[in-house]
Specification:
Chains A, B: InterPro entries: Alpha/beta_knot_MTases, Ribosomal_eL30-like_sf, rRNA_Methyltransferase, SpoU_MeTrfase, tRNA_m1G_MTases_N. Chains A, B: Pfam families: SpoU_methylase. Two copies of one chain form a homodimer. With 272 residues, the first copy, chain A, is an alpha/beta fold. Chain A has two domains: 2-109, Ribosomal protein L30/S12 (60s Ribosomal Protein L30, Chain: A, 2-Layer Sandwich), CATH 3.30.1330; 116-270, SPOUT methyltransferase, trefoil knot domain (Alpha/beta knot, 3-Layer(aba) Sandwich), CATH 3.40.1280.10. Chain A has helices at residues 19-24, 36-44, 65-68, 72-77, 89-96, 116-121, 138-150, 168-173, 189-198, 236-241, 258-270; strands at residues 2-5, 30-34, 57-64, 84-87, 104-109, 127-132, 155-158, 183-185, 202-206, 212-213, 222-227, 243-246. In chain A, strand 7 (155-158), helix 8 (168-173) and strand 8 form a beta-alpha-beta unit.
Chain lengths: 272, 272
């Protein structure tokens, strides 16, 4: 349903106003997705009610006049009652408080939080799980979800210290992956390890001080890879008790980005 | 040599003023490195004349009063005539035009450009080369250098369309790696492939449409991995003639970041 907007203060697009500020305050379960690639991915995962398999719901779009034609195929395939607001670029810039380069915004409603146990119960006989602790950087969170989607991970577990995968920047960096890969939160690393053990899923913890190398590790059918922050890494009690894997690096430069590390690890564990 | 600075207009620190603008205009062969980790790496690679093995030269430091004590070990080991400017945080913020979070800046002089052939001639019987084309994003460039350093790559080749690895943000994202990994430019992919062939180094081109998978590829002793941009990828004539490798991904999400891809590929080629 195309809705032309010519007034930045039009109440029908109030949810889009001042996107940047909205990111910083409570977002009441809403998410904002940007750009054509993400919108195409999201649209391809919607059922007739505008919901993804994860239960996220697309509420409306806001696109610039220049983009509406390019997106005609997506717009035509959306549920007919879904509002597609079309505005001139200048109105659009004023609506969202800063220029949106690609002129495409999607507003959605995130599904309520899901229990980790519920998602773990759904894993099949072969499963690949990503577990992260203390990932507070949205670039890294987005990168981890992008890699999780690329290598077919079934589930991402987060501790409470990690940031929100549905924050606008994390969605953008993930190229939409954080909207399609299931995730759930547990309190901390100990809770994640206990839940994974209860779900008969082997945990390997990545650490520069790991006792085995990644490339020497043959993954079992159900495996979870646990990643900590780049600086402090995983807690000592975890590294003391978990099976630990290292990625050997050149002397004097023992440093990989955590999202890159997740890509290297998931590539190996996926066995592709 | 500690130099206390209390006036943002002090001519002795004119090179640090308005760092952001300087990044955008010609930088006359200068580079700017930020933060303790990068400074420690750079300092550990300096000879008695303040030069790295690549020929980059450290000209001076600018550190906030709060950081000078923490960096005493580095400062003490620098060539004694090298100026270390110490300023209060407020003066520092005014000097550089925006807040430098960690209060540490290093100004250097980049070595003159080196011929790719000169660096290729120095490769040993085992060598790992990274070649990139059309990488215009400094985050990606920094990430590629970080991975090159982590996996002991001997050399990075860039085409003329790629951005400067010594741009401030690229140095920061590389965690200093772009200051220590040798690199050289050639005009384009064809020139890189010709130079690598002349140097008896096998080239593999990464592409989602690659004819072999990365994991099935056994690297020869001297190997170069060629990466294009995320969107358009490498030119068709290159993919038609080169040996091509793919990283298989999940259906419906055929997307990896190019820096992450370089990490996965270098991890495999390094054989660690």
């Amino acid at each position: 349903m195309i809705v032309s907007i010519s007034d930045p203060d039009d109440p029908r697009i109030s949810a889009y106003r001042d996107v940047r500020e909205r990111d910083l305050v409570g977002r009441q379960g809403r998410f904002m997705a940007e750009g054509e690639v993400v919108l195409r991915l999201l649209a391809s995962h919607l059922n007739a009610h505008g919901r993804t398999a994860q239960g996220h719901r697309l509420l409306s779009l806001l696109v610039s006049e220049g983009q509406a034609d390019r997106l005609a195929d997506i717009i035509g395939a959306l549920p007919p009652q879904l509002p597609v607001h079309v505005a001139g670029q200048q109105v659009m810039d004023r609506i969202v408080g800063f220029p949106i380069h690609r002129g495409i915004l999607a507003l959605g409603e995130a599904r309520p939080a899901v229990e980790a146990g519920t998602l773990l119960d759904r894993l099949g006989p072969r499963a690949l799980v990503v577990a992260v602790a203390g990932i507070t950087n949205h670039d890294n969170m987005g990168g981890i979800f992008r890699n999780a989607a690329a290598f077919g991970a079934d589930l991402v577990l987060l501790d409470h210290a990690s940031c929100d995968p549905l924050y606008r920047k994390a969605i953008r960096v993930s190229v939409g992956a954080s909207l399609i890969v299931p995730f759930a939160r547990l309190a901390d690393v100990s809770a994640m390890m206990a839940a994974l053990e209860a779900a008969q899923t082997s945990v390997v913890a990545l650490s520069p001080s790991g006792r085995e190398t990644l490339s020497s590790f043959t993954p079992p059918p159900r495996v979870a890879a646990l990643f900590g922050t780049e600086g402090p890494g995983l807690p000592a009690h975890v590294l003391a008790t978990a099976r630990t894997l290292a990625i050997p690096m050149a002397p004097g430069f023992d440093s990989l980005n955590v999202a890159t590390t997740s890509g290297i690890v998931l590539h190996h564990l996926a066995g592709v």
